[in-house]
Amino acid sequence: MTDKMRVLVSDPVAEEGIKILEGAGFEVVVNTGLAEDALIEEIKDFDALVVRSGTQVTAKVIESGEKLKIIARAGVGVDNVDIPAATKRGIVVVNSPAGNTFAAAELTIAHLLALARHLPQAHASLKQGKWDRKKYVGVELRKKVIGVVGLGKIGRTVASIAQGLLMKVIGFDPFVTKEQSETLGIDLVTLDELYQKSDFITFHLPLNEQTKHMVADQELALMKKTAYLINVARGGIIDENALYTAIKEKQLAGAAIDVFEKEPCTDSPLLELDQVIATPHLGASTIEAQINVAIDVAEDVVSFLNGRTVANAVNLPAVAPEVFLKVAPYLETAERLGKMYGQLYTCSIQEIEIVYKGKPFQLDTQMLTASLVKGLLSVGLEHPVTLVNAMMEAKDRGIKIKVTKEMPNGSGDLIAIKGKGQHEHVLGATSLKGLGPRLLNFDGFRVDIELGGNLLVVPHKDKPGVIGKVGMLLGEGNVNIGAMDVGRKALGKDAVMVISVDQNLSKDVLEKITKIDGVENVTDVRL
């Protein structure tokens, strides 16, 4: 048995990363294609695990890693790593959030050009011995409008290249300020406006509860019949069946797809359409990107195993252990509070104030603040937001963050977020022993309900019948109510209903609730 630190590489990574690990004096074992049972057995004597997207690092694998200290994902996403299980075991998870930025952006532009000029179709036709110039008349990109949904690193890079092609760039990102967008030369618009105005629409978002099938029949109906969609981000953002129908019925000109809901994918109906260009998830498939992500994670593994800090930790606390123990009960509360705010108020956020009331918060609250900002931004960014990079991500978007601490005033401990943008809003919550995170303040309305699961938020006028009608529609939609609380400031005035439900709500049920007399709007918050 060797005394060297041991690193298991279970997916193919660039040799440059392997050399960094070996150069640090580690024993590196490359063993790819392992099934879960084999990986469970193999991982027992390793200090580090390096993966890409192929290896599923499950809770069982993590539990079996008796010596495991760090898991490194050579790429942006960490969907294949059970982060809560790793955190529970004290194992740090790192990734490479920027290593494939240019690769993904350039593939987007390649698809953009290919769609505009029908390049794959013309190529295939010529290969079949046809010289059909008239059939493949395209359009120029100059002066066309490209809508960029998600203005993170990749989205901004796409926008910059598109501007070089003399395109007009409009964008949607609730976490980019107007000042920031003006600096980037991007006109911020609502999603509906973006769908209606764009000639080409490209998506750069994560796949989560909020973005899954965010483009379906209703959204496709808003778009120009001459418009094209591009998705190199995550499969599932676009409803593939709805997209197929829209293109088939000529409601949309076409699409370029690099990612699918289920992969590998070789039998999607979309592949039958001449108007669809498809590639097998090539977003990060460049020599440079593979080298970059391998180097990034290898350097973090070397740093961490040698007792130094890491650049791209997903779950690493950055406070002293004694402080961590006192604020830990509120970490989940802070993150959920931020996540709820991000889903409710998607208008441009310019500034947030985080207010801490109570004795636990007289200590270092850096980690709590990072956790809240992580929840806030994780709703809409195409790369993972972590405790380490959350504050920098907010700064990059021009969001000012102010922290205020107040001693308890008899009302107990409380964390509140006050956001300033087009409008000002406030949410407040606490953590109660045995009950966990509780929402206590919704825009000045006093409520008390679990801050978790699925919450249906219904601002309305306080008048008879509204609550009953909402409950009836939920029952008709086969949606079970777990709990409900109503806040109001005065009889017959504005009020808010917050309902904990056990199932995701369909768009049909949400639309029916919105139409109830007295209901102002409805938001399905998923925590």
Low-pLDDT windows of residues: none
Strand content: 15-25%
Number of DSSP-assigned strands? 22
Q: According to CATH, what is the topology of the largest domain?
A: Rossmann fold
> What would you say the CATH architecture of the largest domain is?
3-Layer(aba) Sandwich
Q: In DSSP terms, counting alpha (H) and pi (I) runs of 4 or more, how many helices?
A: 17
Strand order of the largest sheet: 8-7-6-9-10-11-12
* Class based on secondary structure composition and strand pairing: alpha/beta
Quick overview:
With 527 residues, the protein is of the alpha/beta class. The protein contains 17 helices and 22 strands. It has 4 domains: 6-99 and 288-305, NAD(P)-binding Rossmann-like Domain (Rossmann fold, 3-Layer(aba) Sandwich), CATH 3.40.50.720; 101-278, NAD(P)-binding Rossmann-like Domain (Rossmann fold, 3-Layer(aba) Sandwich); 317-452, D-3-phosphoglycerate dehydrogenase, domain 3 (60s Ribosomal Protein L30, Chain: A, 2-Layer Sandwich), CATH 3.30.1330.90; 453-527, Alpha-Beta Plaits, CATH 3.30.70.260.
Topology:
Elements: E1 6-9, H1 15-23, E2 27-30, H2 36-42, E3 48-51, H3 59-64, E4 70-73, H4 83-88, E5 92-95, H5 101-117, H6 119-127, E6 145-149, H7 153-164, E7 168-172, H8 178-184, E8 187-188, H9 191-197, E9 200-203, H10 217-220, E10 228-231, H11 240-248, E11 254-257, E12 276-278, H12 287-305, H13 321-344, E13 349-357, H14 366-377, H15 390-396, E14 400-406, E15 414-421, E16 424-432, E17 436-442, E18 445-450, E19 454-461, H16 466-476, E20 481-488, E21 494-501, H17 507-514, E22 523-526
Parallel strand pairs: 1-2, 1-3, 3-4, 4-5, 6-7, 6-9, 7-8, 9-10, 10-11, 11-12, 13-14
Antiparallel strand pairs: 13-15, 15-16, 16-17, 17-18, 19-21, 19-22, 20-21
Helix pairs in contact: 1-12, 5-7, 13-14, 14-15
